[in-house]
Structure formats: C-alpha cells, structure tokens
Amino acid sequence: MLRWGVAGVTATVTAALLVTGCTNPLRSSSSSTSSSPQPVPSAMQPLAKFYEQKLSWTDCGSSAKCAYLTVPVDYAKPDGPTTQIKVLKVPARKESSRIGSLVVNPGGPGGSGVEYARYADFIVGAPVRRAYDIVGFDPRGVASSSPIDCIPDAKLDDWLAQDPTPDTPAEVATFGANAAAFGEACKANAQPLVEHVSTVEAAKDMDVLRAALGSAKLDYLGKSYGTFLGATYAGLFPTHVGRMVLDGAMAPDLTQEEMLLGQAKGFETATRAWAQSCIDDGCPLGGSVDEVMTGLSALLRKLDATPARVEGDARVKQLTEGWAAYGVAAAMYDQGMWSTLTSALRPLMEKNDGTALMGLADTYSERNVDGTYSGNMMEVISAVSCLDSSDSPDLAVYEKRAKDFSAQAPVFGTFLAWSGVTCGKWPIPATGKPGPIAADGAPPIVVIGTTRDPATPYEWAQRLAAQLSSGVMVTFDGDGHTAYTRSNSCIDNAIDTFYLKDTAPQDGLRC
C-alpha cells in the first residue's frame, strides 16, 4: 500500500524528516507554562474532563515546547481507558503580531506531526511563521503517541520486501496469507488502540487539542492524508473551522478501489514526467519516454525473478521488486529527487548493485541502514486505512483489478491493485465508509491540487472542493506532491494572505 505521503517541504527536508521519525520527549528542568482551554461545546459535555485539560509545556529542543494531550481510547466510553497524544509547538517568531496557533499535519496516515512542526521554518511562509505558533501532533497510534507496533522490524522488512505482483496461483495464495497474518498480528499486538485509530477519532482528538490550545476556531494546514483528516474534522465540527488549507487533497468519498486506481494513474503520470528528465541526464533505461517506461517495467520484472545485491545494510542484502517499487515511488514525491533516482538506476543496470535504490526505499519506509525503523508509518497506515474503509476479502477481485489497473498504468497498476488485499483481509471491521463531506456552515476551506501529483491526483482535489459547501479550489500546474511552500510564489502568496488576513483566494485560481 502506498502512503499518501509526508509532504510539503523541500526534498532535502523531506528526507531529513523521514529519517528522524519518532523521538522520545526531551524534558528539561525549565518551568511549565499552561494554555487557557476553551469552553466545552454543549454536545461534548460527557467529554468535559478532556476539553477542560490544560497543556503543560516543557522545552524539547531549540525553541520548541512539548506537551501531552489526554484523550479517550473510545469516545463512546469517556470514562474508559485513555491514551496520550504528543504535541509540539514552535512559538510565533513575533509575539506582537501573533494571531494564534496553526495546527499542521503532514499526511501518511502515519506521518509524525511532531517532527513536521520542528521544520516550521520550511512548512509555512515566513509571514505566517512570524504570526502563528506552529503546532504539530502525532495522531493516536503514530510515532510518539502510543505507537502501533504490529511486527518486529525484521518481519517488517520481509513484509515490505515480498513480491507485490503475484502472478501464479501459489504466489497469490502466499500474498493473501501474508496479508491476513499481518492483520492478525496488528490485532493481537496493538490492543486496545488498534481498534480506535480511525480518522474520525483522530479528528475528535484534534478538537480537544483546539480547546486545550485556547483556540475558539481551528486554524489548520493539512497535506496529503492530512486533507482527509481536515475534511473529516470540518464535517464533524463545521462551526469550529477557522482558516483551513487542504493541500494535495484526497476526496473522502473514494472507495478503496478508486483510491488505488487513482494513485496508480497518478504515479504513472509522475513517472513519465521523471522519464523525460532521466533522458536529459543520459537515462540508462532508454532514449524516449516510452522506452524508459518499458525499461522500468522490465527492470521490476527482472528483480521479481532475480533480486539485485545490496551492500552496507545490516539486514537487507537483496533489492527485491517490492523494495525497488518503493524506491521508485519515493522519488516521485518531489522532482528534486528525480536525479537521485536516475543516479541510483545506473549501478543497478550496470553492475546489478541495488544499494542506492534501496536507499530511496529506506527513505520512503522510514528505515535506517542498521535495520531499525525511525517511525511506524508502514504499520499504522494499514490500521488507519482499513478502519476508515473496507475492501473485498476475495482474492479473485484483485486478480481482475490487476489486469484492469495495468492496462491504465503499466508500471504501477498491478502493484497498487494487489495492495488492497491488506484491507480486504483486515480482521477488525471497518468503522467508516466512503462518503462526501459538505461541512455546511464552515467558512471558506481552501483546497489545493497539483496537476501532476503522484500520490493524490489532481482530480481528487477538484472532487473535494466541489463537495465542500464552502470549498475554494486552487490549482498548481506542476510536478510533485502538494504545492504550498514547495516552489511557487503564486501559491505561497495566496495561502499566506489567507492565513494572515482571512481573505480566501479566488475560487479557480491557477498558478
């Protein structure tokens, strides 16, 4: 399953963010400060003790402050078990111009908002940085918020390395059995939280956070999966929405099949754009875009049969088709990484050395060369996604999808088609289902779509903006995943103005 991605910073910072991952709280002896919580919404009176809590902030590196927010594991049982959400705040640069708190989420599902917020200088425009406290949180089950841990790291290596495109009855049976075993391991090893990591529950946590921050309205920046979290919040709490931007949007009414096909086509489009840059750099796969795409497909098939060697890794010694697919996908999130992919392919083609491409796969999966993982995204993504939406348990469904998808996306279609099996075999019943969100009563919500976004195709942003009663559609005509603060001053100026002056961009703005 391809994640929607931790997005929205430069390629260099993205890579740094992905490898830093989960950190332990850094507590100092400095005195704590407390925020003033907001009144409890009338509909939330049974949850008063959560809404009325005060955050105790401690220093946690540079100018950042950290705290823990307590929320119920099950919102239907407010007197039952609780869990803690880690929160990090980087204070506004100019206190005299401070507007409030801007809550940020980088995506995933499973991306660490705590680590994302540490890069406050990169993830928002300089005027916004001066005026807002940038606040990130690790959603329940993620990174430093009671992280879900389904299987040991060595078994996670095997899970990610497996053949992602089964093409014989025996391989299909093995793939289905592996998916079922992974789900059962999550159910057994991550209780009780694994049954309560849905996006709806994370959105409810976000409203408790809003109150604890002392904000009457939630000002929010969500990227990639964070747009689904933001839209879900708006649907639940439309009158609590402040200045909300959803960048690299996912449409909430997408079925699992629609989502996976959309991603397959999105990554195919992005890979074709990379192919031209590869040719310009002297591509080892061919001299035309079609030749490069055909060559890439042939390379993945070759690795399916005969993996390449990997050197310098504590545990992984072979680049399989699975690892290679993740490595190629990693480079599609930002065009700044295209040359890295081209360079990684040369030793693979010339010397059967997959070390460099494995490095890209490691970046994608939050994996270190010593065999440890710095985050738990590659586990929690399934736990969240499969609670949000179910899929078919019938393996024949995926065999048909693989044929249909590959006709529309020859490189990524089969890979994405089979990735749906995880949710098809998930042992915990889904608590959500796809459906449109209108968020009637919310102020303008800005939705940004990038025309050649691989992970969240442009059409999804159009779809979400049309569903939202107050949706404002903004288009970035470009490459890569998400748009704000990546490369375009037209986008940046429009969003900065929205956050600073509460003036939404013109609906239909194209940059």
Query: How widely separated are the two ends?
Result: 31 Å
Largest sheet: 11 strands, mixed
- Based on secondary structure, the structural category is alpha/beta
Taking all residues together, what is the mean pLDDT? Answer: 92
At the first level of CATH, what is the class of the largest domain?
A: Alpha Beta
The shape is globular
Number of strands: 15
Give the full name of the CATH homologous superfamily of the largest domain.
Alpha/Beta hydrolase fold, catalytic domain
Annotated CATH architecture of the largest domain: 3-Layer(aba) Sandwich
Can you count the helices?
A: 20
Strand content: 5-15%
Percent range for helical residues? 40-55%
Pfam families: Abhydrolase_4 (PF08386)
InterPro entries: AB_hydrolase_fold, Pept_S33_TAP-like_C, Serine_prot/Carboxylest_S33
Domain Peptidase S33 tripeptidyl aminopeptidase-like C-terminal: 409-511
Family: Belongs to the peptidase S33 family.
Account of the 3D structure:
This protein is α/β, with parallel strands linked by helices. Helices cover 44% and strands 15% of the residues. It has helices at 11-20, 48-51, 113-118, 120-123, 126-131, 153-161, 169-189, 199-212, 225-236, 256-280, 289-305, 321-332, 338-351, 355-365, 377-388, 395-408, 413-419, 421-424, 458-467, 489-501; strands at residues 5-6, 33-34, 56-59, 65-72, 82-90, 100-105, 107-108, 132-137, 218-223, 241-247, 308-309, 318-319, 445-452, 471-479, 509-510. The strands form three sheets. Strands 2-3-4-5-8-6-9-10-13-14-15 form an eleven-stranded mixed sheet, sandwiched between helices. Helix 10 (256-280) runs antiparallel to helix 17 (413-419). Belongs to the peptidase S33 family. Keywords: Hydrolase, Signal. InterPro entries: AB_hydrolase_fold, Pept_S33_TAP-like_C, Serine_prot/Carboxylest_S33. This is Peptidase S33 tripeptidyl aminopeptidase-like C-terminal domain-containing protein.
